[in-house]
Amino acid sequence: MSQASASTASPPSFDAGRVRQDFPILDREVRGRRLAYLDNAATTQKPRVVLDVLTRYYTEHNANIHRGVHYLSEAATQAHEAARLTAQQFLNARQTREMIFTRNATEGINLVAQSFGRRHIGKGDEVVITGMEHHSNIVPWQLLCEQTGAVLRVVPIADDGELIWEEFERLVGSRTKLVAAVHLSNSLGTVNPVSRIVELAHQHGAAVLIDGAQAAYHFPVDVQALDCDFYVATGHKLYGPTGIGLLYGKAAHLEEMPPYQGGGDMISSVTFEKTTYNEIPYKFEAGTPHIAGAIGLGAAIKYLTGLGFDQVALHERELLAYATDALQQIPGLKLIGTAAEKASILSFAMEGIHPHDIGTILDRMGIAVRTGHHCAMPLVRSLGVAATVRASFYVYNTESEVDRLIEGTVEAIRYFRNDP
Amino acid sequence: MTPESLDDLYRDQVILDHCRHPRNSGSVDLPDFSCSAVNPFCGDEVHFQLKVGNNARISEVGFKGEGCAINQASGSLLSEAIHGLTVSEALELSCDFSLMMEKKTCIDLGGGGRNIAEMGELAALYRVREFPIRVKCALLAWTALDNGIKDYLNNR
Questions:
Q1: Which residues of B touch A419 (CB under 8 A)?
Q2: Rounded to whole angstroms, how far apart are CA atoms A316 and A398?
Q3: Fewer Cβ in 10 A, N or C end of chain A?
Q4: Would you give the end-to-end CA distance of chain A in angstroms?
Q5: Does B6 sit within 8 Å of A361, measured CB to CB?
Q6: Residues A36, A375, A405, A406: which is the catalytic one?
Q7: C-alpha distances in angstroms, A306 versus A53, A117, A309, A310?
Q8: Model confidence over B61-119: pLDDT tens digits?
Q9: Rounded-to-integer distance, Cα A253 and Cα A7, Å
Q10: CA A411, CA A245: separation in Å to the nearest integer?
Q11: Closest approach of chain B CAs to the CA of A292, in angstroms?
Q12: pLDDT over 60 (residue A85)
């Protein structure tokens, strides 16, 4: 059993071993081995500061927000809104009212599709997405197109997992009302040229939604610099709790968009004849929100930014390079997604062995990876495989964990290749 | 779970043999009915084409699939096990198989009441129960068969 240690290639100022100590779950054993958690693209583990803040909220401050006159309600409201400020600064939105708390990135996309989409997108209009979208950035637009008679266009991708830019330029035109694209592909690790996408879409008068569910924890996101109209992220991939997400929208859009859901908090006055909606962002936050989740996300963002994005990015780049090299040494193994701009997500397929079987063998060795099509069925199919094994590395992963992944994969191959 | 049980599962000669060399692989001329099932969570697929002879017994089965070792082995084993059965008998066998894999909902349908010793080569899949998340891989083929037979009986 190898001890967790800092990647030897990392600069001395960054110590993955020390970061690991912040994550209690990484100490546990799975199947008799120290857990090697390499499924970070599915969800990241939570640092103690986040767990503590959740406990403290429920033990000291729990109350409903925006409505009580009592002390606890005021304290909870302040903590909730402080988290919104943290989120605003994190994505560099202009104002806190541009930050809407959602359940997850999926809900953010559905909100934009149903509220912005149904107001601005009609019969014969076009919505453009890319061939590497997660189901969450495909299905909401399909629903919208069914409802309105709009047409969904898909930009194809090349074999290496990069967008075919010429096709993008060809597909975006005067009928395009909205472009929705993933910032960082969850299946391939490809980082898309989102600034260029926004520029191209805006030249044609189309709005742009960027799905940042995977991106926001790998590198800093600046929605003002991107100039995108909407940006979605999810808390549980940012060291935060599940059930809390972020939607950024330009205030001008949010103000004229109709509510997504009706209920308490999203109104300023209600009579049975007429209801006046609350101002943004509250107009889009009907019902008691996930207060603890928002506060936990605020703590997670502070933890993440405290590590330093430069350090995190360097460590992840080194792990990616190390793992890519090692996996390529395995005969018959095919890396899926080899874009020039890539984050620490490694998808691979093995001739003659199904990813599930590799996944089960790795699991028995305490190594957690994802297998399947990663909620991007059209993409994975288009790359000529039924499924892949996906290992995704994060700030707390180490080279010794990569070594275990390689060992386990070789072991899986032995199981299936050794004809009796 | 010890590594030995993993060995048991993946070194099981029946499972390995069926997954490496699926039986009845391919299509059937003029099938009486076809059925498929897809697991949208993992992308596994199975497709069957069946011919029912004049004596009302399944006379030919064609199996195509894409997926893990357990899924492929299960589809291949199914294609052999139902050969020569009537469609109702095949439904019963499917029910027995589901019960063996602890899919209790099948009880309502009524099975043939086989115990494991009477399941033949299908018993090789019994140990998949030790890997609860993989049980669905073993059941996918049988789900396809159930639905296919029910549609076939309804449309006849």
A1: 20
A2: 9
A3: C
A4: 30
A5: yes
A6: A375
A7: 16, 37, 8, 11
A8: 999 998 899 999 999 999 999 999 999 999 999 999 998 887 655 555 567 778 888 89
A9: 45
A10: 39
A11: 30
A12: yes
Are A246 and A106 within 8 A, CB to CB? no
Q: Does the beta-carbon distance from B42 to A356 stay under 8 Å?
A: yes
As given in the structure block, the two tokens for residue B137 are 């891989």
Classified as helix, coil or strand, A14 is coil
The C-alpha of A351 sits at a distance from chain B's nearest C-alpha, in angstroms, of 12
Domain boundaries, chain A: 16-34+308-417, 51-305
Structure tokens at A46: 């939570």
**Location of structure tokens 């299509």:** B27
Architecture of domain A51-305: 3-Layer(aba) Sandwich (3.40)
Mean pLDDT of A355-383: 87
Was domain A16-34+308-417 assigned CATH 3.90.1150.10?
yes
Find all residues with CB under 8 Å of B58, minimum gap 6, and list them.
B50, B51, B52, B82, B83, B84, B85, B86, B87, B90
Name every chain B residue with its beta carbon within 8 A of the beta carbon of A373.
42-43
Question: How far off is chain B from A353, nearest CA to CA, in Å?
Answer: 7
Is residue A375 part of the annotated active site? The answer reads yes
Q: What is the pLDDT, as a whole number, of residue A2?
A: 41
CB of B10 within 8 Å of a chain A CB? The answer is yes
Residue window 39-68, chain B: list those with CB within 8 Å of chain A.
40-45, 66-68
Beta strands A126-130 and A176-182: pairing type?
Answer: parallel
Instruction: State whether residue A121 is helix, strand or coil.
Output: coil
Write the residue in B20, B42, B45 that is nearest to A372 by C-beta: B42
Asked if A354 lies within 8 A of B131 by C-beta distance, the reply is: no
From A31, A387, A415, residue closest to B43, measured CB to CB: A387
| Per-residue pLDDT at A188 | 92
Q: What gap in Å lies between CA A114 and CA A106, rounded to an integer? A: 12
By CA distance, what is A357's nearest residue in B?
A: B68
CB contact under 8 A, A356 and B134: yes
Residue B145 structural domain = 3-155
Cβ within 8 Å of B, A 29-58: 31
**pLDDT interval class at A111 (50, 70, 90):** very high
What is the domain-level CATH number for residue B16? 3.90.1010.10
Please give the tally of structural domains in chain B: 1
- Distance to chain A for B101, nearest Cα, Å: 18
Residue with tokens 């076809």: B34
Tell me: the pLDDT tens digits for A161-187?
Answer: 999 999 999 999 999 999 999 999 999
- State pTM to two decimals: 0.87
* Residue in A380, A415, A420 nearest the CB of B43: A380
